[in-house]
């Protein structure tokens, strides 16, 4: 469905002849697959590092650090990949829509690979790791002095959230949303024509 939607949008762009080169040297799917896998590989390495060193993923500092790292990685990958696709595959011209879809596709591909890896890893290879995170979560929640009923509900929801299948869905959703948000900004700032002499000399 996602792939078909993007292909349909591209066909419309070709039909309207909007910033579309006749012979692109670097095809869209080759680029997004390459950088989507790079994004996934980096995220998988981070997951394995956390597991090997038994990192408490419930720690506020770890959560913030993980989000910042993920955001910076995605931003860098998106900028590099879209610029490469624009410069090498589109003769220096790219529309906002094409740049946005490019970043979104990378996020989706990376999210799918990461989600599948996490599912297999936590469900079959290291199921005890997620279970070991329940106690740190309880300790963190106790600092808020919640009523017993609210505490029990929070623990129950947390235990549901760390089920491998639930984590797979969460990964896909978060990758899609984060990629879309970043993609909007990437599309605005990279949507330009670099074939003019003024920009080429920058």
Sum up the overall morphology in one term. elongated
The helicity comes to over 70%
Radius of gyration: 21 Å
**Mean pLDDT, rounded to whole units?**
81
Would you identify the regions where 5 or more consecutive residues have pLDDT less than 50?
A: 13-23, 196-202
- Biggest pleated-sheet summary: none
Total number of domains: 1
Written as H for each helix and E for each strand, in order along the chain, the element string is HHHHHHHHH
Task: Explain what the structure shows.
It is a single chain. With 202 residues, the chain is an all-alpha fold. The protein has one domain. The protein is 79% helix and 0% strand. The protein contains nine helices and no strands. The longest helix has 30 residues, at 60-89. The radius of gyration is 21 Å and the shape is elongated. Residues 13-23 and 196-202 have low confidence and may be disordered.
What is this entry, summarized?
By secondary structure, this protein is mainly α. About 80% of the residues lie in helices and about 0% in strands. It has one domain (about 1-15, about 25-200).
